[in-house]
Amino acid sequence: CWACEKANFRCSVARTPESALECFMDKQHDLVIIDHRHSRHFDAEALCRPDREEASVMPLINAGFNRRFVENSNMMACYNELLQLEHGEVRAQVKLRAGNAIFMALDQSQEAIEITSEDQVIQYVNPAYESIMGYQPGELLGKEIIEVPKSEKNKPDLLETINSCIRKGKEWQGIYYAKKKNGDSVQQNVKITPSNKHKDRRKGSLDVRSTTSRGSDGSSQRRHSSMARIHSMTIEAPITKVINIINAAQESSPMPVAEALDRVLEILRTTELYSPQLGTKDEDPHTNDLVGGLMTDGLRRLSGNEYIFSTKQPHHIPSHLTTPLSLNDIPPRIAQTMENEDSWDFDIFNLEAATMKRPLTFLGLKIFSRFGVCEFLNCPEATLRSWLQVIEANYHSTNSYHNSSHAADVLHATAYFLCKERVKQSLDPIDEVAALIAATVHDVDHPGRTNSFLCNAGSELAILYNDTAVLESHHAALAFQITTRDDKCNIFKNMERNEYRTLRQAIIDMVLATEMTKHFEHVNKFVNSINKPLAAGNGDEESVKSILTSPENRILVKRMLIKCADISNPCRPQELCIEWAGRISEEYFAQTDEEKRQGLPVVMPVFDRNTCSIPKSQISFIDYFITDMFDAWDAFADLPNLMQHLDNNFKYWKGLDERKLHSLRPHPE
């Protein structure tokens, strides 16, 4: 069951022979496994009646079983066994069933179709062919083509031309006169395709002849199939070109190399090219739950229960915030709190307290002013103030973590990274403005629950976004809805159309990059496309400039920047790191509580407020998600202070864990 869940296969469990039969008749499973370990209803060995003295598996095979799997305590062994079964016997059976369906389709086709072997022996003709040519069913099977009468109306060299094309593995298409059984000639529009044109590694070739008969007046009785156009398309995706090159290389490679290339092709054909496969870390429940909760859509754990998480209408600005703030009107106490906002050690919680949980508006005013955002957008300061207030009003202050303080913290980190020399060399002003806006809105209207929860609960948002990047899509869409519905807060109103579209696309891309399912893809692309070429360039100025400023790499820099800003808590000063850890844990605890109340699958079981070890969860998070990402970001942006904080915080959590302190008191609200 665990292996099926991990591989996203549907699995049914039956505990009696009767229920097993009923279940199989209903769903027609591809794979049936009989558990011989603890069965009270039947004995697998007795069922197969093997000789108990015989160690061979032949009695099992003779009884209809085709594989025996000895119990293994390692769950990954079960997973690997299942994958081998799926890629072997199951896929082979699926192909056989598909073959039957293909021949059924050929039988139903109104076009005449003939299939021959490489030795020119007729292996199949469909009923349409037999009807047009006047043969009885099965009469042509097994005959060589030379035994079938030929029409004298064809040009003498036509057959040689056709055979020459076939020998070269090329298709031939044109007019061909065939002789019916009664001796009459019929004009046909024929397409002959050698099967090795589409299967380069198959030995020999089958000729597939598709014909359309014509009447004596030459008019076509049926349009020729458009399949010929589909087969001759030359548009290929880059990954397809790579796979074709490898396929070609295998032809002349020694066996060990060919086998290694088979493994390469198997990897390339997966959809998760950048997501690492869990090894020993998978056995750690904290890491397993974090990865499962943050990097899946939750569908693998769906139950029959449904919980409707309704989408709320966007909030309007509360009445006590209707008077726009000005940068000059910021109270002295708040202004003093923000004096060191350009420092990485800036304390966002002091600002949260000073602003009565409205840090985003005040910090946004100062940072946007420092970066000249109003000037870039050609936007009055009053519009920016109104926009910041309405965005902050749509963050949920009741969330312990995903509230406007988190948004302000991510905005602060984003601004800090934008001031790093390497980042400034890479990004244009429009990129900087996009990054600041994306940071501000990246979690707007966050419900305090994960994507997995929303998918499991059948929420309106999950249905709207097809269980894909649900929250991130909602944050981006709602941000633009809020912004453009009212001129008083529409910071984009005065932008030129094309520039607005470029800015909008950059903001959306950055917000979507915060979704954790693509975490390793973004990090690995950044390392392979930017860090490694920079390291290989030996500091050559032109080479560095071309790497940093290419449009593709600027996108990767922006994605990496907001990702690091979004989950930078372990790199903050220790007291801030501890506070954030307590807050995110409380939010996960609340989700687990609700999942249990609603009868939903528990996405992250280790986040039970009665048993959870916060130090262990932080160690797993740092070890799995943070270390490699910030190593790469530090190599690019030069952030020694952050890496020192990260090292200190990791040691702190390790120390707590070793002393078996399993809880932290949340910071008082």
Short description:
The protein has 669 residues and is mainly alpha-helical. The protein has helices at residues 2-7, 17-27, 44-48, 58-62, 75-108, 127-133, 158-167, 227-231, 238-251, 255-268, 285-295, 332-337, 348-354, 359-370, 373-377, 381-393, 404-418, 421-426, 429-441, 451-457, 460-464, 470-484, 497-513, 519-536, 541-549, 551-566, 574-598, 614-637, 640-658, and strands at 112-116, 122-125, 172-179, 185-194, 207-213. It folds into three domains: 2-108, no CATH class; 238-269, no CATH class; 285-659, 3'5'-cyclic nucleotide phosphodiesterase, catalytic domain (Catalytic domain of cyclic nucleotide phosphodiesterase 4b2b, Orthogonal Bundle), CATH 1.10.1300.
Topology:
Elements lengths: L1 H6 L9 H11 L16 H5 L9 H5 L12 H34 L3 E5 L5 E4 L1 H7 L24 H10 L4 E8 L5 E10 L12 E7 L13 H5 L6 H14 L3 H14 L16 H11 L36 H6 L10 H7 L4 H12 L2 H5 L3 H13 L10 H15 L2 H6 L2 H13 L9 H7 L2 H5 L5 H15 L12 H17 L5 H18 L4 H9 L1 H16 L7 H25 L15 H24 L2 H19 L11
Antiparallel strand pairs: 1-2, 1-5, 3-4, 4-5
